[in-house]
Amino acid sequence: MRYQVQEWLAERVRWVQYPRQQFIPKRPAPHPGKLSIDDFLKLAVFGYVAWILLAPVLAVLGFAFVVFVLK
C-alpha cells in the first residue's frame, strides 16, 4: 500500500521520489497553460502561512478599531 501511494504521489508531484528509482518513466513536460498539483499545493501552503501571520495582526487591528474609534 505504501509503495502504491508513493508511486501515485510521484506521478503527480515533482518533489516526491519514486520508490524504485530505476523504473522512473519519462514524463512529458506539463503544458504551460495548465495548473499542476504543485501549483495548488504551493497556493495552499502560502494561504496557510499567510493566515498564521496575518490573523493575529488583523485581530489586534480590529480590537483597536473597536476600542479607540467606535468608543
What would you note in describing this structure?
With 71 residues, the chain is mostly helical. It folds into two domains: 1-34, no CATH class; 35-71. It has helices at 2-12, 37-69. The radius of gyration is 21 Å and the shape is elongated. The mean pLDDT is 80.
Descriptive terms for the model:
single chain, 71 residues, elongated
- The radius of gyration is 21 Å
> Stretches where pLDDT falls below 50 for ≥5 residues?
none
The fraction of residues in strands falls at under 5%
Q: Which class of secondary structure composition applies to the elements?
A: mainly alpha
Helix-strand topology string: HH
Q: For this entry, what is the oligomeric state of its chains?
A: single chain
- How many β strands by DSSP? 0
Determine the N-to-C terminus distance.
Answer: 60 Å
Domain count, please report it: 2
Q: How much helix, percentage-wise, in residues?
A: 55-70%
Q: Choose one word for the global shape.
A: elongated
- The average pLDDT value, as a whole number, equals 80
Largest sheet: none
Give the helix tally. Answer: 2
Keywords: Membrane, Transmembrane, Transmembrane helix
Transmembrane segments: 48-70
Task: List strands and helices in order, with pairings.
Blueprint lengths: L1 H11 L24 H33 L2
